[in-house]
Amino acid sequence: MKAKVNDIVKFKAKSLGNGTVRWLPDEDEPDYPSDNMYTIELVNGNTIRCTEQYFEIFEEEELDD
């Protein structure tokens, strides 16, 4: 399942916790060709760029629990 803007994600690295997808990979971006990097905003306001293999998308039923 592909992440969308404003999806809440959980990082596989326990030290990062949760974050929110802010920017999706841009296939046409000349500075980052085909890098598949998502920009994720952390709870503390910092942003990081990583590929989808480093996080999991929260499902809605997980958020309700």
Question: Could you characterize the architecture of this molecule?
Answer:
This protein has one helix and five strands; from the N terminus they run βββββα. By secondary structure, the protein is mainly β. The chain has a single domain (8-59), classed as SH3 type barrels (Roll), CATH 2.30.30. The protein has a five-stranded antiparallel β-sheet with strand order 4-3-2-1-5, with no helix packed on it. It starts with 7 loop residues before the first strand and ends with a helix. The mean pLDDT is 83.
List the topology elements.
Layout: E1 8-11, E2 18-23, E3 38-42, E4 47-50, E5 55-57, H1 60-64
Antiparallel strand pairs: 1-2, 1-5, 2-3, 3-4
Could you list some keywords that capture this structure?
65 residues, mainly beta, 5-stranded antiparallel sheet, globular
Can I get a quick summary?
With 65 residues, the protein is mainly β. The chain contains 1 helix and 5 strands, in the order βββββα.
Q: For the report, how would you describe the main beta sheet?
A: 5 strands, antiparallel
SSE pattern, N- to C-terminal: EEEEEH
CATH class annotation: Mainly Beta
Oligomer: single chain
Count every helix, treating DSSP H or I runs of 4 or more residues as helices: 1
Structural class: mainly beta
Query: Given the C-alpha coordinates, what overall shape results?
Result: globular
Amino-to-carboxy terminus distance = 21 Å
CATH topology tier name:
SH3 type barrels
* Strand numbers in spatial order across the main sheet: 4-3-2-1-5
Mean pLDDT: 83
The parts where pLDDT drops under 50 for at least 5 residues are none
